Amino acid sequence: MSHDNLSETLKRILFHKNMRSSDLARATGIPIPTAQRIVAGGCKNPHMSSLKPIADYFEIELDQLKGLKPIEWLNDTAQLKALGVHSIPLLYWPDVKEGISVHSIGTQKKAKKIFTETPVSNHAFALKLKDSSMEPIFPMDSLVIFDPNQVYKDRYYVLVKLQSQDEPLFRQLIIDAGDLFVKPLHPDLQHFRIHLLGQNDKILATLVEARQQFTP
pLDDT tens digits for 28-82? Predict the structure, then answer.
């Protein structure tokens, strides 16, 4: 079982029911810290004694709670849109390349879905940070959501594809006298501080939301 699938499913259920982790704990008799860890995705192997009361309370199967089977009333796209919730794909870094349509990748059924209340276009997608180059603001494993249709400005954070790199990079954009520069934030990367974007480099998308996981 993926604790990420469980966490994401439970977050969607709680949002749908207008509940918080503490409300879930009181409704099911689970300790509040346990409920908070399960919802946040910090509980790697939750006990059945915690999962079954949750599934029973929402009248769903355990496999549905774990994200292994769909929940029909939770997957009503029209209802989600009416609530201002957008479903976007969670992509892998190698999949996001110049010359490949992010939208066509994102609409594949195999892509895991992330839900956000941030206004985004149909081309938005999410990635999980795999390095510390943008710390301390964006720690490794943070979930970052990008929108190719969002206009970038000076000091915005962007996903950029450099001609010299195989995969895109997450960087801060600096605009000076019409020139575009990108830089990492980590203080140990001083020798990579500023990179002038060339004619064959491309800004793929602009950051619109970032989520951090505070539990181990």
Answer: 999 999 999 898 887 778 889 999 999 999 999 999 998 888 887 776 555 666 6
CA angle 171, 177, 179 (to 5 degrees): 40
Q: Is residue 29 classed as helix, strand or coil in its secondary structure?
A: coil
**For the chain, domain boundaries:** 3-75, 81-211
CATH number of 81-211: 2.10.109.10
Residue 173's CB is within 10 A of a number of other CB atoms, namely: 20
The answer to whether residues 208 and 147 touch, using CB atoms and an 8 Å cutoff, is yes
Distance from C-alpha of 2 to C-alpha of 165, rounded to nearest angstrom = 31
Measured torsion, CA atoms of residues 30, 112, 60, 78, in degrees rounded to the nearest 10? 120
Topology given in CATH for the domain delimited by 3-75: 434 Repressor (Amino-terminal Domain) (1.10.260)
Asked if 5 and 67 touch (Cβ cutoff 8 Å), the reply is yes
Question: Please, what's the b/e burial string for 37-63 (b: 16 or more CB within 10 A of its CB; e: otherwise)?
Answer: bbbbbebeebeeebbebbbeebebebe
* Cα–Cα distance for residue pair 97/27, rounded to 1 Å: 46
The residue with tokens 């929108």 is 147
Dihedral over alpha carbons 122, 127, 132, 136 (to 10 degrees) = 50
Q: What is the 3-state secondary structure (H, E, C) of 110-149?
A: CCEEEEECCCCCCCCEEEECCCCCCCCCCCCCCEEEEECC
pTM over 0.85: no
